[in-house]
Amino acid sequence: MLLIPLLLAFQQPVPIVLAQAAPASDHASDRGPAFYMVRKPGGKREDAYGAVVLRRRLSLDLQDVPIADALAAITAQTGIRFVYMREEVPVDRRVSLAAQDIALAAALTEVLFDAGVDVELLSGNQVALVKRRSSGSQAHQRRRITGHVLDAETKSPLPGAVVTVTGTAIGAITSDSGTFAIVVPDNATGLSVRRIGYRQNSVTLTADQSDVTVELSKDPLKLETQVVTGVATTISSRNAANAVAVVSSDQISEVPAPTLENALQSKIPGAIIEQNNGGAPGGGLQIQIRGITSIEADASPLYVIDGVIVNNETTNNGANAISQASLGSPGVQNTQQFEQDNSPNRLADINPNDIESIEVLKGSSASAIYGAKAASGVVIITTKKGTPGKTAWNVTQRFGTFELANHLPLRTFPTLGSAQLWYLNDEHSGDAGTPAASADSAFIKSVYGGPQDYQNQLFGGGELSYETDLSVRGASESGKTTYFMSALTKYDNGILLNTGYNKQSVRTNISQTLLPNLTVSGSLFYANSLTRRGVSGNDNVGISPYDVLSYTPQFINLNNRSATGAWARNVFGPANPFADAEEIQTPENVHRFIGGGTLSWTMFHTAAQSLQASVIGGADYSDERAQLYAPPDLQQEQSLPSGLPGVATSLEANTEYLNYSVNLIHHYVGSSLVDATTSIGLADERRNFYNPNAVGQNLVAGQNSFTAGSVQSGYYAQTALRDFSFYGQEQLLLLNQRLALTGGVTTERSSNNGDDQKYYSYPKVSASYRIPHLFSFLDEIKGRVAYGQSGTEPTYGVKYSGLVPSVLGSSSGTFTPAAYGDPSVQPETNTEIEGGIDATMFGSRAQLSATVYQKRISNVLLQEAVNPSFGTSTQWLNGGQFTNRGLELSLAATPIEMRNGFTWISTTTFYRNYSVVDNLAVAAFDLPESGGGPFGIFLIQPGRSVSEVVSTNPADVNKAGVPVQIGDAQPAFQMGFTNDFSFSSFHLHTVLDWKKGSTADNANNLYFDNSLFLLDSAASAKRLVERANGGSPYVEDAGYVKLREITIAYDLPSRLIHNVTRGYLASAKLSLSGRNLWASFKYTGPDPEVSGDGNVNITRGNDVTQYPPARSYFVSLDLGF
Amino acid sequence: MRRLAILGIVIAIGCDTPTVPNYASPNPDVTTRAGLQTLVTGLFGGTRIDLVWIITEMSSFARDAGNFTNTDPRFITEFLGDGTPINNSDFGIFGWNNQFQMVRTADSILSALPGVHSPAAYSAGEQAQITGVVQTIKALDYMYLAEQRDTSGVPIGGDKLNDLGSPAPILCNKDVWRAIVAILDSGNAALNVDPSEALVISLPNGFGSVSATGGSFSSFNRALAGKANLELAYAIARSKAATAPTPMSAGTPDNAALLRADSAITASTLYQPAQLTPPAAGAFADPLAVYHSFSSISGDLVNPINGEIGTLRMLDEFVASVDTANDLRWKAKFTVNPDPAQQQAYSGVSAPFIVTFYPVVGSPIPIVRNEELVLIRAQIRLGLGDLSGAWTLINDVRTQVGGLPAEAVSADYATTRDALMREQRISTVLESGGDRAIAIRMYGLAAVADTTWGASDTHATLMPVPNTEFANRSSSALSCP
After folding, report:
1. Closest by Cα among A119, A605, A923 to B167
2. B314 versus A303: which is more confidently predicted?
3. B39 CB near a chain A CB, below 8 Å?
4. How many CA atoms lie within 13 A of B252 on its CB side?
5. Between β-strands A760-772 and A778-792, what pairing exists: parallel, antiparallel or unpaired?
6. What is the ipTM of this complex?
7. Residue of A422, A710, A816, A937 to mutate for B, most B C-beta atoms under 10 A
8. DSSP-assigned letters across all residues of A732-754
9. Which one of A100, A185, A764, A943 is at 20 to 30 Å from A918 when CA atoms are compared?
10. What is the pTM of this model?
C-alpha cells in the first residue's frame, strides 16, 4: 500500500479491462497460459500479468484455424512476433475465436487454451511460447471466468456493466450481449458487478467455478452512484462520508426548464434555488448552498463542467441607461450598468439536455480540494458521453407557452362615474403628472376609455414557445472511439410584450483510446442566445410596467395608436407601457464557447496496483453584447428628467476562464481489506473580464446607435484573476469496503489576495462506516463524519484603494474613494464539520439520509462602515466570524411497487439552516443595499442571524439597545416533495416546493399605496399609517408553496412503434408538462421569490416592480432511434 | 526523465507571477504637478455630486419647491416632511458622505503639496496659493454639511488622513461654524501671501470670475466667510435660548461675528450692490458670481435641477409670495408649462410652472453671487440692528433686479425681516446657497406652522446625522449648550 504523502490526485478507480466480448465457454480453471516477463536471457521469470503489451487490443475472426495461423493473425494486428519450438507448441491444433476489441492477453488465453504452454515476454515485440513447467507454476494460479450480467426483472442482458474481481483491480466490462470473460487469480473468491441505474451486486466464486450469471436489480432511488471526492476521484455513494447531492439527467429533463437552475429547484437538500426576477425570459437564478457563506465576497457556488471551471457571472446589460434605477434622484447623469439591470447569469447558456448528472459538493468537507473557491459549494456537471453499442439517436420536440402566473389585485373602473368619483375624491393626490384638475371631471370624461385590464394586456404572453433537441451517442465498432453530439434550438416567449429568449447550442463529446494505456477525450460546446427582457424592476423615470400601473388608473386606453402610428399619451404620468414594451429594444446576444479535454495515461498497472497520470483542463469564453435602444419620440423619453430623449447603448462583456490540472493517481488493492487511492496534483486557473460600455443620449430620431447621441458616455471595467494550487488526497476503503477514510489538503495562492505569493492551505478528513443488517428491516446503515476547510477569495480590487475618476468640463480629475481597500486582505476561511447517517431499508425500498453540519466562516471579508466623516464610508478588512448550522433530511422510498407494474417513488427533502454572527471585528453595520425606513435594514450584529432585517424605527429598540428583528431573508426551512407514479406506459411526475418563513421587501405596495390603486385600499391605508409612524409595513412574509413541476407522460407501445416504423424507432414518449402552475403564499406582491438586486448574498427579497412571475405549459414528444 | 520534464514545464507555467494590476482606478502620481492637478479638479468636481440633494432638501425645507417624482415618494416624505419627522433612511447619507470625501480629498492635496517635485517643486508662494484655494473649497463642503444638518451637528477636527481609528467629534452648530470660519480665514491668509501672483492650478469655468490670482480667489473666500460668520452669529444666539431670535424678536446674534461677516462681504469683489441688474430670461449670466459647472461631456455631471424640471413643483406658498405679474425675477425664472398635460398639481392645487433658469443640461448653478451677497449683507445689517441699512439693500435688489417699486422702509424688525426673506426667496430660489431655509432657522421661524400640508403642518427643517456616523461613537446624542 502506498501512503506516500505526495501521492495525491484524483482518479476514478477504473478496473483494467483484460477481455471484452469473449465467447463464453466452459473450461477448466487451470488450462490457460501463464504470462511471464523475462528481462534477460535465462533470467528470472516475473509475473507479467499486468504488462502493458498484453493490453494491446485486437479483433479476431478465426474459424477452425491452426494455432500457427492464429498466432500469425495476432502478429499482423499487434506487431508481436512469436518465437517457440514446434515440438513444445501444438501449432497444428485448430482453434476458433471471434471477438471484437479484446486484449492480447485474452486472445492468447483463448488461442493457447489447453495447449500446455506459457507466455514469456521478451524484449522489444518478441514473445516466447514455452512449454509449461511443473505444477505450482504461475499457470496454476489463474483461471478464466466467463459470464452474463442480466436485468433481474426482465432477464435482458446488460451491456456496459463493470465486473471486478473482489480484492483486486482486475476487471472487465460486459459486451452488448451482456457477456464478459475475465482471467482471475486462482484464489479469487468473488466478483462485484455494478452498472449505472442498477444496484451493485456481488457473487461468490466457488473453487472450480468458471461460469457465472449475475443479475442486477434496478435502482430507482439511485442508491448506487459514484460521487466525486476531488477533481477527478470518486467513491461509491454507499461509502461516501459526505452528503453529496446527485441529480441525474432524467430528474433534470422531466419538465422543460428555461435554464438549468429551474430544473434543480427543490431537488437538492441544502440548496435554496430561487429566481431573481419573476418570469423574465432567459434565466437569472441564484443557488445558495448551506446558507449564506459570505457577507461581501462572491458567495455563489463554483461550477465545473467536465473538469472545466466555468463562468456563471452576471453581467449587467446596461438597462440602467434607460431605467436610471441607480439614481437616487432624477437628473444626475448616471447611465452606467447597474446590479438592478435584471440580467441573467451565464449558467443559462448550458443546455440541460446535455447533462448526464449533477453532483453538488455542499460544504468544505467535500469541496476543500477546490480551495478558496469552494466555500459556497461546488456544482459538478457531467455531460453525456458516448457509450459502446449501437448508435442511439434521440429527438425531442416541445411546444408550449409561458403565461402570467399571478395578477396583482388592481382597482378597476367599470364606469365613467367610478373614474370620476375616484378623481373627485382627490385620491390621486401626490401623483406626478396629474393634469390640472377640472371641477366637473370633464377631463376624466375626455380620457375615459372604458375599463382596462393592463396586466392581461401587457403580460398576456400567449406566444408559442418551442424546443427541439437532437442528440446522438455511440461508439466506433472497435469501441476505441465514443461520441456524444447534440444540438438544441429553443425559444421561450416572455410574458411581457416583446420579450423572449432564443437559444441554439451544439455539443460534441468525443473520447478516443489512442493506446491501451492512453485515452484522450475532448468536448466542445457552443451556444448562442438572444435574450429580450424589456425594462422592468426598479427605475427612476416611471418606466417599469408595474411602476406605470401604480400611477395610471385602469381606464384609459393606452394600448392604442393613432392613424399616424403615434402611441396614446398617458396623461397620468410619463410613460405608456405598451409603447415602451413595443418600441424599446433590449437584445442581449451571447456567444459561449466551452472546450475541454482530458488526457489519461496509465503509466503502469498490475493486478494489485496502477499509476495513472491525467491532465484535465479547458477554457470557457463568453462574449455578451447588449445593444439597447429607447427611441427619442417615446413619451417616456420625452418626459425624461435629463431632457435627453433617446438612449442607445453598446455594451460588451468578454469573460475568459482557463484552467487545467495535472494529476497523478495511484490505486492499490491489497486485498478485500484494503483499497487505497492516492493522488497528487496541481491546478492553475486564470480569469479575465473586459467590459466596455458606450451610451448615447439625446438621439437623432430614427438612429439607434449610441454614436447618434449628442451626449455620449463611455465606461470600462476590467478584472483578472490568477490562481495556482497544489493538492493531494488519500482515499482508503478498508475492512471489506465498510470503512472509508479520506484525507487531503489543498494549498493555494491567488492574485486577489493582498499577498499574492502567499499560499493558504485547506485540509479535509472524512470517515464513514457501513453496518449491514443491523436490524431485520435495515439493509444497511452508514455513519459518516467529515471535516474540512475551504475559502472564499476576496473579490477583485479589494486590496486596492484607487482614486475615483471624475470629469469636470474638459478636465479629468480624481478624488478619494468612498471605499478603502485592504492591501493585506486574505481569503475567508470556511471550516465545516458534518455528520450523518444513511440508512437503506426494506430491501432497498427506502433510504433515509440525515445530515447535520456546522459551517463556520471566519476571517470574514467585511466592508466596515467607517464613520463617513473620515472621508470614506467603508473600509475592507478581514475579521469576525459567523456560523451556519443546519439539518438536511432526505427520505427516498418506493412505497408502492406492485406486480401489475404500478410503482410510486417518492422523495422528500427537508432543509433548515440557521446562521448567527459570532463576532465582528467592527461595529454592527447595515448593508448598503438595505432599503431602510419602511423596508427595514439588513443589520449585521453579533448574536443575531446574518440575514436578519431590523426596524429602523427608533421606537423599535429593546432594552438592551438592540433593534427589533422584523424579518430575515433566510427561510425557517425548505422542503421538497418529488413523487413519480408509473403504471403500464403512463408516468406522472410532480415536484412540490415549500419554503417556510423568510421575508421580502414589497416596494410594489409602496408604489400602489400612494395611488390607492390596489383593490384592498384598507390595507393600503393601514400601511400608510404604519409607515408614517415609522413602522416597516413593506417587510412581508416571503414563504410559499409552489408546484414546481408536473408531467404526465405516455410511452408508446414499443411493438407498435417498431412495427409502424419498421424498426427505425426504438422508443417514443409523449408528455404534457407544466412548471410553476400553482402557488400559495401570503405575500401580497406578485411573487415572493424575488431579488431585484440580482444575485446578492444577503439582501434578497427586494421587490420593486419586477418582471412578474410566469408559469409554463409544454407538450413534448421524445423519439429514440 | 521526459515525464519529469513535462511535469516541470507545467509547474513552471503555473508558477508565473500572479500579480494583477489595479485596472479599475490606477492612481495618479501626486508627486507631479499634473497628478496634483487631477486631485484639485476632482475636488471641485466631486463637491457638486450631491448638489441635487442639497438644493432639493433646502428648497423643500423652505417650502419653496419639492420634487414630486412618482418614482420615489421619499422625496416628499423625507424632504417635505408631510408631517413626518425625517427618519434615518438611506436618503440621510446624501449630502454627507460625499462632502466628507471631498474634505479628505482636500486634506490629501494639502498633504501631497510639499512633495510635488516634477517637473519642479512649487514655490512657497505657490504652495500657499494652492492651500488657500483648497481650504476654501474644503470650507464650502463643510458649509453644505452644516447648512443641511444645522443643529444635528457635524464632525470636524483632526487630520484623519492616516488614522481611521477614532472619528472626529460631532460639533454643535456654533462650533461647526467657528471651525468653518477658521478654515476660511486660514485659506484667505494663504491666498494673500502673494495675492497678485497668477494661479498655478486650473479651476473650472464656473470659477472664471475669481481664477486669475490668489487675490481674486480671495474674493470668493470672503464671500463665503461673510455668509459663514452670519450663520455663526445666529448659531451662537440660538445656542442660548434666552437670546435666540423668535418670530417676534431679533434675538441676540453674536455681534463680533456679524461685524466679521460685514467686513468679509464688503472685502469681496463679488459684492457690488451698485451693479445689480435684472436677470435675463433664460440662463443665468451674472458676471459677479461663482458657479458649479456642468456639461454633457462623457463622465461629467449634468445640471441636476434641469433634470428635475419634469417633476419639480413650486409650492403654493412660494408662488403666493411673488408678484408674478411684475417681478422681473419671476418672469425670468419661471414660465407656465406650455404642455397643458404637464401642468402639474399637488394636493389638488395646480402648479403649472416650470423652471427656466436652468434651461440646458450644461447650465451652471450659482455657489454665490452678487444679488445673493447683497441680501446676505442685508441680513447682517438687520442682525446688527441697522434696519435702515438693511432696507437699502433690500430695495436695491427689489428695484434693480426685480423691477419692482421700493418698499416703504419700516423700523419694525419683523417687517424688515419678512421683506428681506421675501426678496431672498425669489432671488435665490433653487440656488445652492439654501438661503431661505437657513433664514427660517436663523430667525426662529422653523416652529411656525406652515399651511402647505394642512393647519398643523410642522415640516422638516434639517437632515439628521446618518446612522453610519454613529459607528465607533459612544453615543448618538449630541449635547449642546
Report:
1. A923
2. A303
3. yes
4. 5
5. antiparallel
6. 0.91
7. A816
8. EEETTTTEEEEEEEEEEEETTSS
9. A764
10. 0.83
